[in-house]
Design goal:
The protein is mostly helical and 182 residues long. It has 8 helices and no strands. It is 76% helix and 0% strand. Helix 6 packs across helix 8 and helix 7 (148-155) crosses helix 8 (159-178).
Length: 182
């Protein structure tokens, strides 16, 4: 390999100049380390491999983001891998949580199943009585597991608006529930 004697910063400058051989050298140098970190976090070989590709794709697309004054190239690359891996875990958690909420509680007792279905139907009925903007925010927060910031970004709304809609929707749901509105 001709790039063995070059520093990370030398190779990074060449990546910024769109030199694929420099990217390949950085990949050879750091892919095993990035993979190891990703694998430890996501605990899935295929997802870890995908994360390695995503890390180096980001490097190729935006090498100028690296700031030498904030740390080493190695630390920066690993921080990208860490953030992407945590995002995978969050998505996984949301998907499982959403599926659990849709499926309802697992039980062998027919009475528990019937009560759970009735409660779910009552909640859906009450949600249907909310203004659409409040209902959407509650669905995103509780059924998809999004944070208020993520909801604001998805809906293109200010964070304060999302917080207000969520608070007002929950207050209205409580009032409807107390009034036996289900």
């Amino acid at each position: 390999m001709a790039d063995v004697g070059l520093t990370d910063e030398d190779l990074l400058r060449r990546v910024a100049a769109r030199d694929p051989a420099a990217l390949a050298s950085l990949y050879d140098r750091y892919a095993p380390l990035v993979y190891g970190l990703a694998r430890r976090i996501v605990r899935d070989e295929d997802q870890a491999e995908d994360l390695v590709q995503e890390v180096f794709l980001r490097l190729w697309n935006r090498p100028e983001v690296y700031d030498r004054g904030r740390g080493t190239f190695r630390a920066w690359l690993l921080s990208i891998a860490h953030h992407l891996a945590v995002d995978v875990l969050r998505r996984r958690r949301r998907e499982v949580s959403y599926q659990d909420k849709l499926a309802g509680p697992e039980t062998d007792d027919p009475m528990d199943t019937a009560v759970g279905q009735l409660e779910g139907a009552a909640v859906r009925s009450l949600l249907g009585r909310l203004p659409p903007d409040q209902r959407r925010v509650i669905e995103l927060a509780y059924f998809e597991g999004l944070t208020q910031r993520e909801i604001a970004a998805r809906l293109g709304e200010p964070l304060g608006t999302v917080k207000t809609r969520l608070r007002l929707g929950i207050i209205k749901l409580r009032a409807l529930y107390k009034d036996g509105g289900g």
